[in-house]
Amino acid sequence: MEQTIDSQQKHVWFHFASLGEFEQGRPVLEKLKALHPSKKIVVTFFSPSGYEIRKNYALADVFYLPIDTLSNAKRFIDLINPEMAIFTKYEFWHFYFKELKSRDIPLYIISGIFRPSQAFFKWYGSFYRNILKSVTYFFVQNEESKALLNSINLTNATISGDTRFDRVYENAQKPKQLLDIEQFLGDSPTLVCGSTWPEDEKLLSNLPEQYPNWKFIIVPHEIHESHIESIEKQFSTGSLRFSMLDSQTQSATYQTLIIDNIGMLSSLYQYGKVAYIGGGFGAGIHNTLEAAAFGLPVIFGVKYDKFQEAKDLIAIGAAKCISNTIELLAAFEDFSTNENASIRAKKYVEEKKGATDQILSMITKPTQP
Question: What is the spatial distance between Cα 213 and Cα 255, in angstroms, rounded to a whole number?
């Protein structure tokens, strides 16, 4: 950092736990940079999954966040000389927050979300509550989060919504064209299966034989060789790896395409009619909004309770939770012919966007250089 950063220069500091939080906060970062091109930005990550993919991000200097100690916090903040710090969702660091407050540097939490089960709201949570007192302002996703903060006498919060809606909406307006994919799919209706795990793939392998006129795109969460091989065995009736797809491939021979690289999923949804979102039989489902932004109704497994957007999509008839093959077939059959579900999914995202502009209007002014 010392070899890269000019400590005499003011910076805007964005911190993200991982890649998901980066994508969530990215609309704020990019619009801030567009409004104020001369501002210097520092991005820090906690997780390798964020840092390794975004370490060459063009709009910022990108680093790992040094471990949260008093000496590191002082040295780091001396070095980057932040005019403000912006943390996304639920990252709370005692010494960094304390040092920012002691220097009167504004600290914002964006797309914040709080739950009663968190330590902040327990009888033993005074240490954790003190961390929150260093935050200048909270931009939270929902009424419950604001009420929880109010319950511990923190009134510096507003409901701005979730900046992810802005991100996925923007992506859906200008998706990257994938000509090889278009040639493979032709005019076939397509199910895009995003961030799948073995439990998901076992269920999904029942679909191609039942729906021979459909194409299936499998985008596994992990792309190591043994996992790809196991998918090939399960989807044995005409599966092909993306790395083996070229203009000479007779796409009519293959029904299932397995994506064996990283970074394509958000663009692939443009070619789908229905989406299946993986993770619902493990730690929790992955991003449903990327698919919904393209007007795809979504299907997922049972672990979705921590995701408000999944609950919302179910409530409006644009998503279904499934737990077995019979339920998967029924959900797929319904969504394959249900145009209303597609309209509802897209409208849901469109109506929820706008958090980015609300946040920026409060943390910076257009008249600033």
Answer: 8
